[in-house]
Structure formats: C-alpha cells, structure tokens
Write a structure and sequence with these properties.
- This protein is an alpha/beta fold and 209 residues long.
- It has one domain (59-208): 3-Layer(aba) Sandwich (Rossmann fold), CATH 3.40.50.
- It is 38% helix and 24% strand.
- It is built from 7 helices and 7 strands; from the N terminus they run H-H-H-E-H-E-H-E-H-E-H-E-E-E.
- It has helices at 6-20, 29-43, 54-66, 90-96, 109-121, 135-143, 158-165, and strands at 77-82, 100-105, 128-131, 147-153, 169-179, 191-197, 200-208.
- Strands 3-2-1-4-5-7-6 form a 7-stranded mixed beta sheet, with helices on both faces.
- The longest helix is centred in the first third of the chain and has 15 residues, at 6-20.
- The protein is globular.
Length: 209
C-alpha cells in the first residue's frame, strides 16, 4: 500500500482542525502520516479499524482524536487510553502533545503487538508504552489514581466507561468519553461537547474527577 503523504494529510485535516479549534504542530504531520501508513498496512492483515483507506482513517478516526485537544491539560500530563486498539486516540495524543506521557491498554495480543511496533517506529519509547492488560488488572497493578487523563473510545457504553474510568484518575483529573449522536443524556456530572465533521455528528463527554 502506498504510504500516506504528510502534505496530503495536512490538507485533509485542515478543515476538521479548523472546526474543532485544534492546533496541529507543523512538525507533527510527518509522524502522523507515518502512523496512518502503519495503521493501514497492519489493517490489511489484522482487524485494527473499519477504515481501509487514508480518507476514511483521516475523516472518521484522526478527526475524532483532534476533538480531544482542547480538553487536554495545558501543562505536561499523563494519560491512559483504555482499549486502545489501533492507538486511537492515544497515539495521536502522543504525536500531537510532545509533553504527554501515557499508557495504551489493549488486551488483544495482535493489536497490542501493533501498538508496540508503532511506538518503536514513531520514536515514542520512554514516554508511551503499550500493555496487553485489562483495565481491572491495570487498576490492581498500580493504575488506580495514576493519571491526569483517562480516555476510551467505543469500548463500553458511556455510563459503564464512567464507572470504570474514574478510578484511574488523580484528584482533578479529566475523564473523556467519545459518543455518537444517539447516545442519549450524558451521565450526571458529565458535560457534552458536540461537533460535526464531514457530515458525522459526534460528541465528547467530559467529567472532572
């Protein structure tokens, strides 16, 4: 498969970034393009995402990751991405915020192998790690109260993710859930932040610990 070009990705993400108020560092486009190429290359062999083309990956997945940027701490922070899959949004956060350190939890072996490979390819070892670990095991192994940000994308219904995710956070930390238009009322204490990209209605749910 032809590698994704940094210039093409920059142009493709320009409108989502404008709509979402997301400032993408110019130096991030080359590693983002490399990451996108890795997702598509591995996705041809294992089930990483439903996106099989660069356009679908950018429009349906990278754009969702951009929506988080305004809600991340301004200062250096730690994060955990639970059920990371292809590294969405965790690896995108890592590429866009060089001051972030994080863990990607992915219990499915093939997906965790992809994450470990991508971390090496993208020069992220040392501040990002991928663990083949379930959330419950991670909490028992020291994950409780360990992070400034906890995020998960489409692993559990929102209310379940809220209950599971809050114990990961330090006091004052940020819990983030990503939902579609039919998610219903957010759980108590959560604030909905809707957005529309490429005719897709989506929303972030944010709660402070």
């Amino acid at each position: 498969m032809k590698p994704v070009a940094a210039g093409w990705l920059e142009a493709r993400l320009a409108e989502p970034a404008r709509v979402l108020g997301a400032a993408i560092p110019p130096a991030a486009f080359a590693p983002l393009a490399r990451y996108a190429s890795l997702v598509l290359e591995w996705g041809a062999r294992i089930n990483l995402t439903g996106a099989k083309t660069p356009e679908a990956l950018a429009d349906e997945h990278l754009a969702d990751a951009l929506a988080l940027l305004r809600h991340l701490p301004a200062a250096p922070f730690s994060f955990v991405d639970v059920g990371s899959g292809a590294g969405l949004p965790g690896l995108v956060i890592a590429l866009l915020r060089a001051d972030a350190s994080g863990r990607l939890l992915e219990p499915i072996g093939k997906k965790q192998a992809f994450l470990a490979h991508a971390i090496r390819e993208l020069g992220l070892p040392g501040r990002i790690s991928a663990r083949a670990e379930r959330l419950e095991d991670h909490l028992r192994a020291g994950g409780q109260g360990a992070y400034d940000v906890a995020v998960s994308r489409a692993v559990w219904p929102v209310a379940d993710w809220l209950e599971r995710g809050l114990p990961l956070l330090k006091a004052g930390g940020t819990w983030i859930g990503l939902t579609g238009p039919s998610a219903g009322e957010p759980p108590a204490g959560c604030k909905r932040h809707p957005y529309r990209i490429h005719d897709r209605d989506r929303a972030l749910l944010i709660r402070r610990a």
